Amino acid sequence: QVQLVESGGGLVQPGGSLRLSCVHSGSSLDYYVIGWFRQAPGKEREGISCKSGSDGMTYYADSVKGRFTISRDNAKNTVYLQMNDLKREDTAVYYCATTRSLRSPGSWCLSQYEYDNWGQGTQVTVSS
Prior knowledge:
Strands 2, 4, 5, 6, 9, 10 and 11 form a seven-stranded mixed β-sheet that branches. Strands 1-3-8-7 form a four-stranded antiparallel β-sheet, with no helix packed on it. The relative contact order is 0.31. It contains no helices and eleven strands.
C-alpha cells in the first residue's frame, strides 16, 4: 500500500506560482498512475493531471494545460505539481492519488473513481 502526503499549498497572488509535493512511501510507483485532483468549495472533485509511473506519459485537463506541470523525482519518492500563472479559479484543496495500472494516461485518469489511494490534501488559495 502506498501512503501519500501532500505539501506546498498556501496563499499566492494571481499570476504567481506554487509547487505542490506528494511524497509517497510504501512501494515503488513504477506500477502506478499518479493523479492530481482539486476540489473547490461546493464543487465536485476535479482531475487536473496524471502521470504514468511506468512510461512517464502525462495528461492534463484543459483547465490547466500549459500552466501546470506534473513531474516525478524517483530519488525523493516525490511527485510534483508545478503551477504557474495561477488564477483565482485555481483556489481549491489539492490532492494526489494513486491507482495501480500500466495503462497510459488519458481522459480516464482524470476520473477520481479510478483511484483507490489518496493523500490528505493541501489548500491553495489564489487571491490578491
